Amino acid sequence: MSKRPVLLIVIALNLLVLVALAFAYPQLMVSPGPLVKGHADLSTDCFACHVPLRGASPALCIGCHAVAEIGLKTTAGAPIVARATKAAFHQDLIEQDCMACHSDHQGPKLSKRSRKPFSHALLNQPVQQRCAFCHTAPKDTMHRDLKVECSQCHQTTAWTPATFDHDKFFVLDRDHNATCDTCHKNSDYSQYTCYGCHEHSQANVRAEHVEEGIRDFENCVECHRNPGVEPEKASRSGQGGKPGKGDRD
To answer: Which residues contact 149 (CB under 8 A, 6 or more apart)?
Structure first.
């Protein structure tokens, strides 16, 4: 017998042994790394989550994690007291594809950087529009007193950058292109002041407005949303308004 067939037979036998070992001990042969803490007890039972030659299966996940109880109860049926999220949103997913967000192995090939992030597109459309369903109201000074929907400035693809349009409230023209803290003191963006500039001192503003018979001039952007346009002109263009009756003597 020539050496070539013998070599091929040896290679084939080795391959068969490797395949057999991969099926017998997949956690040692093909595992990308240790499991997360919650699934640590399955470290030697790969087929609890994986289908041979096909990978992880959502059907096997749902076999342990009942969709109606995810986020509310443990797999043993005990209520979850310290819940990670405000709402149980798994019940409102448009499809039960667990692997779209979850990778339970912590090895180098499936590190946090390479894991798939949660996508809001997986939620039903009505839930996507209800940010407060999952997210608690922000406690920072910029958002605390805002009465608008999150979607007016933020998108579900990413929290930043925001799409806030400052021109809707006040046009930052050449003479007003100042730093944020000039008008919003202590980074409190729910309030503003026009007295942060030396030209707009309280005494100067009072003198100019009293001369016109205007007594209520604290809410500047009510009339001066566009500093390059006089209030009367701005009223016609829809960018501002003249003082109301309560603003004059």
So the answer is: 131
Q: Which residues, at least 6 apart from 49, have a Cβ–Cβ distance to it below 8 Å?
A: 39, 42, 56, 57, 60, 61, 104
DSSP character string of the chain? --HHHHHHHHHHHHHHHHHHHHHH-HHHHT--SPBPGGGGGGTT-GGGTEETTTEE-HHHHHHHS-GGGTTTB-TTS-B-SS-SSSS--GGGBSS--GGGT---B-SGGG-TTTSPPP-GGGB-HHHHT-GGGTSPPP-STTTTT--S-GGGT-BTTBSSS----GGGT----GGG---HHHHSGGG-TT---STTSGGG-HHHHHHHHHHTTB---S-GGGT-SSTTS-HHHHHHHTS-----GGGB-
pLDDT per residue rounded down to tens, the chain (249 residues): 567 788 888 888 888 887 777 777 776 667 777 888 888 888 888 888 888 878 888 889 888 888 888 888 888 888 888 776 667 788 888 887 888 787 777 765 544 454 556 778 888 888 877 887 777 767 776 676 667 778 778 887 777 778 888 888 888 888 888 788 888 888 777 788 888 777 788 888 888 888 888 888 888 888 888 877 777 644 433 443 343 333 333
Q: With the C-alpha atoms ordered 33, 37, 43, 47, is the resulting torsion angle positive or negative?
A: negative
Q: Tell whether the torsion through CA atoms of 147, 151, 156 and 157 is positive or negative.
A: negative
Distance CA 101, CA 118 (A): 5
